Amino acid sequence: MRLVLTILLLLAWVLPAPAAWNIVMRDNRRYVSLEDVATFYKMSQPVSEGQKFRLTGAGTSILGTENGRDVLINGVKYVLCFPILTQGGRTLISAMDVVKIIEPILRPQKIKNAAAVRTVILDAGHGGHDSGARGPLGAEKDAALDVVLRAKKLLQENGYQVRCTRLIDTFIPLENRAGFANKHTNAIFVAVHFNKSNTGGGTGLETYCLAPRGVPSMDEENLRYSDFVQYPGHARDPENVALATCVHASLVRTLGLTDRGIKRARFVVIKNLKLPGILVEGGFMSGAPDSRLIATPSYRQKMAQAILDGVNRYKTAVTGQMLYQKPSAVASATDPTTVPNLDGKAAGSPTPSPVGAKTDDQNAVAQVKEALENAAKGN
Ligand SMILES: [Zn+2]
Questions:
Q1: Ligand 1 centre and the CA of 139: distance in Å?
Q2: Residue 218: left (phi > 0), alpha (psi -120 to 50), or beta?
């Protein structure tokens, strides 16, 4: 039954450039070859070295490993929706990953109806009786609020309107944070958190955005019924990943900690957003060297600066407003001069953008949801 349901979902998917995409069904899921990805995005054909592969283009690159779920796109690490596979000497990537990750990163200017960025909603995690992660040198709620206050000042100095879910040490329910954000238009949402490891230790930076419908959350490999629920935030899938890319790349470049990647989750605070939103984890309260760094004002100031930088780069990428001479919004985290291909004509137009496949995607998800409901009723 599950097999049939998954095929139902996957058959209804549509990718652009029909002549270019050869769909391969694997694990009841639609995959395309890296060769097709390279052709569509005007990149060189994939080069393999052992299990590793590499695609390069004008200012763009995609690196990954066969059977892995991590890829580096323009130097930034992503956890893919589904693993990379091989078949008949070709390397395959899921169509979902092309539509939901690669497309908005390589062609952010093609994101439909991307809102202007005039207001930034900053959300300091936790507060009041909810301390968040506790480390030897302090509590997450205090570090998060300090970074938010520093970022607020920097963003205002750079012409943004800033609204904060909290400005003091107080408890605010998660639902209220998204509700507050949703009162604003032409705005984006950035939640600031710090991490902890249940086993102690831990190091590095990670950024979360909403898992698309039909994609497992976090490190899960199997789909659950709840993965097909539609949330307001799904209307912003392309913007979410573009914003995550810009801010995460700035954090990694500025703070220099390990890049743990851009990941997917269904946190309450991001799934209910009607505006683009992300949640950043700026290091581990529970482990050195992170905890020692987080305790210093200079680290928190650098993190605030990285948030400003990421917001500027996102604005440049989706609106075309040139805040940078070389807009590297979705480009390398290690090479700030890398320029992504922001020219729609060069990137394969007039072929429709994969983002345009949303309607078919939603139809497919609706079919699966109905089928799952019937299955639950015993039909
Ligand atoms: Zn937290």
A1: 10
A2: left
Instruction: Return all residues near 79 (Cβ < 8 A) that are at least 6 apart.
Output: 69, 70, 219, 261, 262, 263, 264
Distance 358 CA to ligand 1 centre (A): 31
Strand 90-94 relative to strand 85-87, pairing: antiparallel
pLDDT at 341: 27
* pLDDT at residue 334 greater than cutoff 60: no
Q: At which residue do the structure tokens 């507060």 appear?
A: 127
What spacing in Å lies between the alpha carbon of 123 and ligand 1's midpoint? 11
- Assess contact for 41 and 52: CB atoms under 8 A: no
Pick the CATH number of 119-319 from 3.30.360.10, 3.40.250.10, 3.40.630.40, 3.40.720.10: 3.40.630.40
**What pTM, to 2 d.p., does this model score?**
0.82
CA 286 – ligand 1 centroid, Å = 12
Distance from C-alpha of 248 to C-alpha of 344, rounded to nearest angstrom: 24
